[in-house]
Structure formats: C-alpha cells, structure tokens
Write a structure and sequence with these properties.
Blueprint: E1 5-9, H1 14-18, H2 32-43, E2 51-54, H3 58-71, E3 75-77, H4 95-109, H5 123-141, E4 150-154, H6 156-167, H7 171-176, E5 184-189, E6 195-200, E7 203-204
Parallel strand pairs: 1-4, 2-3, 2-4
Antiparallel strand pairs: 1-5, 5-6, 6-7
Helix pairs in contact: 2-3, 5-6
Length: about 220
C-alpha cells in the first residue's frame, strides 16, 4: 500500500479563541495551547513523514515548525493552500458574519460551488488553487509502491471542501463534521487518479450521513 497524504489542521490561534474570521495572509499566531497541540501532534507521529509541508499562513508555518522539531523532517512552505478567503467578512466575529459564511460554505458542499463569499472566494476558486498542488505532491511523493506518508499543515474549511470533492464522502457528513485544531483528514491515492478518504477527524472510514453536527468554530 502506498503512503497517505495527511492533511492536518493547524493548532489553536487567537482568532479561533475569539471566533474571528481570520483568513488573510499572514494571519494570527498560535496560542500557548496551539503550540502545545502542535508539539503533541509531532511527538505522537510513530514514524516521521517522508516530507512535511504547510500553507504560507503564520499559524500553519508555526504548527509545521513544531512538527519539524519533533520529527527532524524539514518543513517546506507551499503557496495556494491558505484558508478560504472571506473578503468582506474578514476580521469579523459576529454571529451574522459566521452565518453568512456558513450559508455559502454549506451550499458548496451540496454542489453550488459557483457561489461566492461577499468580496471573497467561490468554492470553484478554492478548488482551482488548492487541488493542483495536491496532485503535484501525489505525483512527486506518493506514486511509487513503497511511498511513505507526507504531512501537510493546512486549514479546516479548505481541507473539508477539497477532501469532499476529491473523495466523494457523503455531503452531509462533510458539511456537518468540523475539525478540531490538529485533527486530520487522511487521503489515500486510489486507482485512476482518485483519492480515498480513510480518516476524517475523529472518524475512520466508512462515513455515514447520520452523524450529528460537530464543532462551533466557523473555520474548523
């Protein structure tokens, strides 16, 4: 069996605690708890990954840096893997702003990818910048029969959307199941260029629709 692509949500940030919509680069830093989460994630990896990557956001780079320190695998920063860009909602923490984003984001999970966050991205925009990088990583590091896992530190909303579109996990499951900080989505290369989702946060495959809504972090 070939290696997996392990997408890791970054550690807790000041924005997560305050429930601020923080998506523009470079973004807010990790909290002390977020640092501890990143250190724990790295120390819990039984086998170091063959490669370690992160998005360009500060919180992802910081999380990746602590994983690097724990595993000895050098962190590489990649472009185009930042969080969904929220445009006019950036920096807001109101209930109205959260609901405005979630209305659009939920619609994406049910196929309305052309909808756009006010002043920000559409689902199509997110997929267009994010998916080609994953495909390149697959070709370079996961194509051989003896390939080992690679770890990519990224962002909850982007990870969930991209993983649902690549793997076809049930739409309601993907829409409802948020990721806590440093939880993972694990993708296994499948035949014909596809991907299979083997883990989504706390849940191993297979996934069903009838799982209750988890999490209250709008970007999780």
């Amino acid at each position: 069996m070939t290696g997996k692509l392990i997408l890791v949500r970054h550690g807790e940030t000041e924005g997560n605690v305050a429930k601020i919509l923080d998506t523009r680069l470079p973004g807010l830093p990790l909290t002390e708890r977020g640092v501890a989460q990143a250190k724990t994630f790295g120390s819990n990896l039984i086998v170091p990954p063959q490669r370690l990557f992160s998005s360009a956001a500060l919180r992802a780079r910081q999380t990746g840096g602590y994983i690097e320190a724990a595993t000895g695998v050098a962190l590489e920063v990649l472009e185009d893997l930042q969080e969904v860009q929220l445009g006019d909602l950036e920096g807001l923490g109101t209930r109205e702003a959260h609901e405005a984003f979630q209305d659009v984001y939920h619609a994406w999970h049910f196929g309305e990818l052309s909808l756009r966050v006010p002043g920000g991205e559409s689902g199509e925009d997110v997929l267009a910048r994010y998916v080609p990088t994953l495909q390149r990583l697959r070709e370079e590091y996961l194509s051989g029969p003896d390939a080992a896992d690679i770890v990519l530190v990224s962002h909850g909303a982007a990870m969930r959307l991209v993983s649902r579109e690549l793997t076809g996990v049930p739409r309601l499951f993907a829409a409802n199941n948020h990721l806590d900080n440093t939880e993972t989505i694990e993708l296994l290369p499948a035949e014909n260029g596809g991907w299979e989702c083997t883990r989504w946060g706390r849940y191993p495959a297979p996934f069903g629709d009838a799982i209750a809504l988890t999490g209250d972090d709008p970007m999780g």
